[in-house]
Design a protein that fits this description.
Blueprint: H1 4-10, E1 22-27, E2 31-37, H2 55-70, E3 82-91, E4 100-111, E5 114-123, E6 126-136
């Protein structure tokens, strides 16, 4: 299990935009599983009506977990890849305060400078989001 201290060494994101609380499994260059605890105190949930996490935040959480697969700490300076695209995104439910958003990301394909990652987010075993994410390595 990798806690927030590890995540902060790998990802450049900080509060309130850091959307991965813990990594429970990491195979650098292959796959990762982690989660985000959804709190009613999140700044992006402070709106009238039903406070639910937006689909854009689910995709961002999957992208950040995917970044941990590619950006595991290295001994030499490394130029991080750019988030290049989203394909086949599907949203199947609401994520509410108090939920634990389970994140799963796995490298699906790598060709030249493009890496495709299959991502899935779920709550209590129910899939709420899935997408194919693309990352491009800088020239």
């Amino acid at each position: 299990m990798l806690d927030i201290r590890y995540i902060l060494t790998v990802l450049p994101h900080r509060f309130p935009f850091l959307l991965v609380d813990r990594i429970v499994e990491l195979n650098p260059g292959i796959s990762a599983r982690g989660y985000k605890l959804i709190s009613c105190n999140e700044p992006w949930l402070q709106c009238p009506g039903l406070p639910s996490i937006s689909p854009a935040y689910m995709i961002e959480a999957l992208a950040q977990l995917s970044g941990c697969i590619v950006l595991a700490p290295r001994e030499v300076p490394f130029q991080p890849p750019y988030f290049a695209g989203i394909d086949k995104a599907r949203f199947r439910g609401l994520v509410l305060p108090g939920d634990r958003l389970e994140l799963d990301a796995r490298i699906a394909a790598q060709r030249r400078s493009i890496t495709k990652v299959a991502g899935m987010a779920s709550v209590n075993g129910r899939v709420v989001c899935s997408a194919s994410l693309s990352f491009a390595s800088p020239p």
